[in-house]
Amino acid sequence: MPKGANVALSALTEQPGAVVAGLSWSSATGDGDADVSVILLDENGKVRHDGDFYFYNQPAAKDGSVQLLGKTPTPDGSEDRIGLDLTAVAPDVARIVVAASRYGGARFGDLADLRLTLSDGSGEALLGFSIPDAGAETAFIFGELYRRDAEWKFRAVGQGYDSGLAGLATDFGIAVVDDEEEGEEAAAEATADGAGAGADAGGSSAGPGTAPAGSGGPGTGGGSVTATVVGAAVAGAGVAGAGVAGAGVAGAAVTGTGTAVAGAAVVGAAVAVPGVPDAPLVPAQAGPAGSPAPARPRAVRTAKKKITVPRAAKKSLAENESWRPARLFPLPHTKSDREREARATSVLLAVMAEVPEFGRRLTAGFGAPAGRMQTFTEVALPHGESPRRPDGVIRVERAGKLWTALVETKTNGNPLKDEQVQDYMDIAARRGYEAVITLSNDVALEGSPLVTVKLDGRRKHKVGLWHLSWAEVAQHAQLLIRHEGVGDAAHAWLLQELLHYLHHENSGCHGFQNMGPAWVPVRTGIETETLSAGDPRAAEVVESWERLVRQLCLRLGGELGQKALPVQRARRGGDPEARRAEAADTLCAEGRLSAEIRVDGSPGILGLTADLRTGKLRTSMDVPAPEGGYPLTAAKRLVRILAEAPADLHVETLVEANNGPRGTLERLRPEPGDLLPRDGAPITGFRLSLFKGMGGARGNTESGFIRSVGESVDRFYTTVVVHLAQLQRRSRA
């Protein structure tokens, strides 16, 4: 679509009620990223309340109309997806704005291939809109959906802002408070000294001078509040050092006793923004007695939240370690593949139905609406002369309409079967079901389908074919109970039991765990220098390596609570098969497998190299040298920050023309000056690397290649990257 064009969704699909918007971009350096947001507007072009703003701190609407689905890997990077259930949107919402923003002075002009894609519930693309002329903008409205004559239409907008998310949000009646955690703590301490702790409407403590979102406080009408009145003269009565929780609400004011009075005005009050302790106090607008306070934009905090749940286990009451706690999902020592698949399917589907946050998280990306979910196992469905029995069925009801998906499950190394999935696709199409979901230990790759099915183009009803790996299931469970939280303690316990089940050695749900039959011949061919370019076995190994890297990203993301994605240096739109063929030729010539992983919040890109000639694994990260200051000071600071890093950590100085001095941390600790180039060349950064012996077996055994790669990444991240993050925070300070 060209910029400014519009189209009715009903002209593109027979099911315009649910769509998925995908925002994508690429970066030459691989570290470009942006945060997506969705804003619901009324007929006046303003938000109705702060709940109309969806972003990383508020990723989903309670009514299911909006759901930020997170990033999905693509051949050349990733795509940030947003699920929109237009049938659930409130009738007084006239427009839905889809936008993205960057932080820290980063511009959209530094990214390439800015694009919005709109797809239907089955995953079929309906339209695309590209933005080729981005420059200094730090926020962009990609597009909007709007009501016209009782139907929804899409408009390609492409409007940029050089004032970032704050400027974009302010246009729609939202005041953005982008404070850091340190600023919040400082403001809280300052407010507590002069004002005391605030309380919400129910009398519970809500923190110094702040009312919780949605609670309002006396006379607030349920709006969220972020302002604090400090040392104010209220309604003519001087109240020295009085701090009032919930002040600044339109139509309410505060008397000398600290109670909110509807219709009164705050006279001469000074408003301090939490998180900005050094900001000057701004006098509030005075008005005649009884007049409503002037309307202010809704205030929304955009500082990213980091919610952690303590992982320390409660003290055991067992007499000794031989006592095993009772588990909700027991795992016998021996079990056939069929029994293992049936048990795994039943366990997963039961938890999905009982924990709404988890069930919704797994199915939202497949076009499922937010609603009442029920799950079933071993359902017999007619198909020709004999019925078919899919492993499971997921059914979601919303507003009297049903969404149904058939589930086919595999555990251990068992592959999905084309004919089985084809039967389920045919059954789903005939019965009007919306999706078929395959679930196995394999990880899906773009351009390399796990199953091959034929779709009858003559059928009007489209069925989406989706895949989940057991590693993805575990990641979503980890994110919910360790970082984002769930609404019920029993739900958290159910997810913990599910994770225990998935991680048990007898569950068969361990994720990608076999490099394939080509691994040993390729490794041997590299060692003996008999592997030639164009060997198809090398391409198989490259594909397995890519699956392993994506699984590493899933595990890192779940454990850290941050987005972790493989970096693709190729431009978007390239052929994934051609890219893998090129990587296979490199493997034959150089004997190395390489990958890069970007983790949000990390100081750099995590590099991973498996050298099949030397049998060594290398994990590394490049960190830039601090701007300004003396080179020796930078070297000493780096060595000091890495005081607890492993002694065998290799440190290499980076200069513009070539690489500079290098050595192990053990040797450099007493003499950091050895990192300085002898010719005085300016230092651009440092490369930190750890080396480990590579496992040879193709499986996930103790001596296997997959296990050694995971251990190598874990060691580097826990012993090196955590210290580099401290250096990054100090540099910013």
SSE blueprint and pairings:
Layout: E1 6-8, E2 18-26, E3 35-41, E4 53-54, E5 66-74, E6 77-85, E7 95-101, E8 112-120, E9 125-131, E10 139-148, E11 151-161, H1 164-170, E12 174-177, H2 181-195, E13 198-199, E14 205-207, E15 228-230, E16 233-234, E17 237-238, E18 243-245, E19 252-254, E20 260-262, E21 270-272, E22 282-283, E23 298-301, H3 337-354, H4 356-363, E24 372-377, E25 392-398, E26 401-409, H5 418-431, E27 435-440, E28 464-469, H6 470-484, H7 489-503, H8 519-527, H9 536-560, E29 564-566, H10 576-590, E30 592-599, E31 606-611, E32 616-624, H11 631-641, E33 650-655, E34 659-664, H12 665-668, E35 683-693, H13 705-732
Parallel strand pairs: 12-23, 26-27, 27-28
Antiparallel strand pairs: 1-11, 2-6, 2-8, 3-4, 3-7, 5-6, 7-10, 8-9, 10-11, 13-14, 15-18, 15-21, 16-17, 19-20, 21-22, 24-25, 25-26, 29-30, 30-31, 31-32, 32-35, 33-34, 33-35
Helix pairs in contact: 3-4, 3-7, 4-6, 6-7, 6-9, 9-10
Structure report:
The chain is built from 13 helices and 35 strands. By secondary structure, the chain is α+β, with helices and mostly antiparallel strands. Mean pLDDT is 79; it is low at 180-296. The strands form 9 sheets. It has a 7-stranded antiparallel sheet with strand order 29-30-31-32-35-33-34. The protein has a 6-stranded antiparallel sheet with strand order 1-11-10-7-3-4. 25% of the residues lie in helices and 27% in strands.
